[in-house]
Task: inverse folding
């Protein structure tokens, strides 16, 4: 009986101090394993293709590259660990558990920050295109991307400082990796605003503004093209009578010349005969 119970624990040698192995239903575990594996593989492959395809480092491409790197880390590091969580114990120790959660928080925060920077870049490119190249430069974009990652690391390290000091404080047994951040009410509200409500609001507002400006520009382009086509039609219609008049004049001249040619021919023949007869008489 003790042998069977020890086989069901993460660390059989620790007995009561060890956690029980996760025993999800076989069908559910298989479905979750296949789904997460497919998502992880797809995320890693697509973001790797994006990173490889970027050859020219413009400000927009640099922001896309930073977002692709953060998403690549999600598919390459975070999701495989979540797959292991479904059917295995945490065997890497308390320190690696703390590092894992810090990395999770940093990557997710930096991904949100990169999306905010991309929305700002698109807003400036569409709503202020004349000053875009002077306001958005490659050096400024590099600084913004570095600040995004640095601020994400510092902020999440500050939030998880107690967990980093005592990574095993939330674990009830060995083989468990739990991160339960205990923060006060004001810190909770500020964290919710800084990491979710604020970025989502900024992204929605900027893209709505971009949509409005894009629609107005499309209407202006359609109106301009319609005016150009109408002006072209007017010019063509006004040039048709002149062309018809010129054709009519050309036709009348040809008719006159055609009538005059026989007369000239007859006059030349008469002149020749007259000269011949005059020569005979003389």
Result:
């Amino acid at each position: 009986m003790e042998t069977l119970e020890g086989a069901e624990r993460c660390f059989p040698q620790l007995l009561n101090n060890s956690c029980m192995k996760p025993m999800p239903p076989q069908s559910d575990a298989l479905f979750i394993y296949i789904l997460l594996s497919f998502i992880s593989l797809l995320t890693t492959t697509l973001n790797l293709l994006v990173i490889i395809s970027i050859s020219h480092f413009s400000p927009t491409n640099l922001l896309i590259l930073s977002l692709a790197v953060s998403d690549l880390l999600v598919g390459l590091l975070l999701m495989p660990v979540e797959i292991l969580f479904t059917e295995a114990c945490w065997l890497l120790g308390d320190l690696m558990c703390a590092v894992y959660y810090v990395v999770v928080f940093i990557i997710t925060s930096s991904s949100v920050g990169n999306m905010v920077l991309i929305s700002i870049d698109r807003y400036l490119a569409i709503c202020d295109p004349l000053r875009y190249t002077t306001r958005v430069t490659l050096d400024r974009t590099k600084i913004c991307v570095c600040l995004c990652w640095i601020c994400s690391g510092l902020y999440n390290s500050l939030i998880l400082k107690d967990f980093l000091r005592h990574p095993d404080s939330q674990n009830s047994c060995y083989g468990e990796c739990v991160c339960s951040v205990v923060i006060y009410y004001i810190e909770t509200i500020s964290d919710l605003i800084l990491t979710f409500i604020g970025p989502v609001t900024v992204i929605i507002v900027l893209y709505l503004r971009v949509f409005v400006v894009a629609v107005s520009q499309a209407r202006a382009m359609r109106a301009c093209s319609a005016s150009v086509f109408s002006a072209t039609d007017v010019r063509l219609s006004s040039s048709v009578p002149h062309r018809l008049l010129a054709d009519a004049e050309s036709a009348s001249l040809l008719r006159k010349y055609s009538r005059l040619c026989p007369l000239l021919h007859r006059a030349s023949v008469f002149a020749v005969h007259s000269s011949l007869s005059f020569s005979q008489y003389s």
